[in-house]
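Board work, copied verbatim: Major facilitator superfamily MFS_1
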Amino acid sequence: MVQLKTRRISAGAFFFLTGLCFSSWASRIPDFQQKFSLSEGQLGSVLLGLPLGSLLALPLATWAVIKFGSRSVVMVGLSLYVLVLVGIGFSMDAFFLSVMVFIFGMIGNMMNISLNTQALNLEKDYGRNILGSLHGLWSLAGFAGAGVGGLMVYLQLSPYQHYAIIFLVGLIVIFIFRNGFVDEVPDKTSSVRGLVWRKPDETLLKLGMVGFCGMMCEGCMFDWSGVYMNKVVQAPAYLVPTGYIAYMGAMAIGRFAADKLAHRFGMIRVLQGSGIMIFTGLILSITYPQVWVVIFGFLMVGLGTAAVVPLCFSLAANSTSLPTGIAIAMVSTISFFGFLLGPPLIGFIAEWIGLKASFALMSLVGLMVTFWVWVGKKSFTPKAI
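↓ predict structure ↓
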């Protein structure tokens, strides 16, 4: 029997590694844009592959988690995740990059569903909320990965060399912490086949809309913060990654604090405040596009987006009518539409009327987090779900 402490350490290590992989990709997006001479619209089309792959992976991820157990999916998925990252770095043209980003998105969401299923089962065994802290490790890794990305740019190492280093680190982490996960009994019920077409109940639908707005803003910051620093702020090359670093660092801090804040003030108030924080940070960055003001604005956005996904998942896991993996998958499906639409939408609008206008739209989307929480607050309780 694997002890709770060992399971939590292993889960934390894998959350950290997935965050490191993702931020390693995101921190070098400006390099790919420059390497392949991509316009904002063309870059948006390339970036569309990641959330599209994530969305299309949902039925496969949900089926695999229930059929084989989340432990098996985590182990296979993370091994492939670090390998595909190297493939991204190896891209010789924009088409190959698009294909690899698509696959990266698919495997990434396999990890999202399976690793969160493990984490929420662990949370139930603990008897208290720990998901925020685990997501905090993902964001902390994003902060670290962005810093490493900045260092790699400074050292003039190519994305391929950068990602090869991350690949080696990933293999070590997987080997060391592979035994810290528990097996689950495979579910061979027929309902799994129709899972992705099942209509979510009203509460899960509203939770999904909160996640939709939050993840659209996350996609904006993941994929476009570096481009914004480069094109709008016109920051020196060595400062271009600092906006993303500020965002990810603030998100990490916010997620470590999310569990305590939710316990003290309630999940509803924390989520409502999150939307206001996102809106304020983006408006500040648009109004005063100077380096240090934008860094502070992105920091506010990081604090705002921090609690949205963990709290939505924790609320979804309280479902009494559906297994944890299915409830998460339903909320994730709706949420990932935001991740799907956000980055390419920003690119297309930027091509049309400018990148600042795209960020202005995202500020309103952030405010919609507060709106959807207000609409659904009466049902966002464990008993109501």
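Residues 4-177+200-376 form a domain with the Growth Hormone; Chain: A; fold (CATH 1.20.1250.20).
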